[in-house]
Each structure stands twice: as structure tokens, then as C-alpha cells.
Please model this.
Amino acid sequence: MTVTSLRDGYVDMPVRRLRQPGDKPFGDNLPSQVPLFDGALRLSVNAFAIDDGQEITLIDTGSSNAWHPTMGFLPQALSEAKIAVDRIRTVAFTHTHLDHINGLILPDGRDGFPQLARLLIPRLELDMFRSEARLSRFHDRAQPLDPGQRLSANIEAVATPGHEIGHTCFRAASGGETVLVWGDIVHVPSLQFDRPEVTWEFDTDQEQARATRLRILALAADNAWCVAGAHLDSPGVGRISRTETGFRFEPL
Model:
């Protein structure tokens, strides 16, 4: 099985999106290890293709032209990786935020994945997905995705709520190795591995997001799993180890 990182682009966000415990934004006390670009946080936006040799499962699809012009480059990434879109028959979402779902439709209005047979949405977010007018042609095609559900013999859904009510990770295992495609468990890798208590303004439930992040970081570190993150610096794949006070990300 092959996992390919696909960069949709990046988005710059204000520092106030980072929240300390108690929903307190950072002021002048942002740690020095956090790089800024014109005073903003730069988040990579990544999707991941899992190829079992027969067909490809795509986890998240980027934003197409629905948000910032620095995003929407998934089709170019697929071409660069020599992945034919006709081989992508399953698309599964970690959650339904716009930078993960809008790549179903290309900027010119065509379907991004013309041979799509399964569109899997976390069950708790089906109504949210079906409220997206831009994606109306897919509303009836969406199928609910539940924790523990197997997408294939090698891919299993894992419940990781907090950032969104149905946020889901995907554990892919093959040949004695495991990679956890984990969506938005971490938004700012230069800070949240070392200080996992720091949350994100757009977390639906900050306390739950914090607890989920701590649980998943420990699970990945203690089992030597690779992780693949939507907002880890591209290509966004690596391993996690424990430190005295938190965790460390070691990119591949």
C-alpha cells in the first residue's frame, strides 16, 4: 500500500486563532519557535491518497476555489504524483470544513473525481455537508461514516471529535506499518506538539479537541505510528516521540 501526500496549497491565519486554556488568545507571548509570515500563521493544506494497488481512497479534497487563492491545487498535485483521477473511487472526509470538502468540484464546475463510487461523511456531520449549496449534486450520494467502520481491509475510521463533532481519523495498516491520516488534530505544528494544550479558535469544542489531541499523540507515539496531517508542513508525514513536557514531531 502506498500513501501519497498531496498539497492543496496554504492559508495564512491570524495569530489570535491560537487559544490558550480558557479560550485566551495569544498576545505578545507567542513562543519564538513559531514562524510568522507578515505577522500571520501559515498552514499547509494537505490531502492524502491511499493506493492499495487496485483503487485509490482519497482522504479530504482541499478547497478548490471556495476559499483563498493560495489553495485549490489538488488537481496539479495529483498530476504531479501521476495519480489518474479515474482511479479514485472512494473519497472520505475527516470532517466537513470547507478546506477539506470543496475539491469535489473543480473551479470550472466539473466533478473532480468522475469515477467516484463512495463518498463517506462522518455521520454526525451529514447535515452539515448537505447544507453546502455548492456541493448540492453530491448531497444524495453522501454515505454515513461511523467510528470503527472499515473502508477496506486495511483502512479503519477512528473517532476523534473536538475540532468538529464528527472529526475522524483514518488508520491505514499494511506490511507491519501503520499511518494515521489525522485531519486537523494539529493546526500549528511548531507549537502544538510541544504544547498540546493550545487549541484553535475554530475548534467546535476546545476542551474535547485538547483531550483528543493528547490521546492521539500518545497513541501514535507509543505505537510508533506514522501520522499524516492536513495542516502539518508539507508533505505533513512523520513520527511522534514523547519529550519531558510534551511531544516532538519528526518529519519523514
About this structure: The radius of gyration is 17 Å. The domain at 2-19+31-251 is CATH 3.60.15.10 (Metallo-beta-lactamase; Chain A).
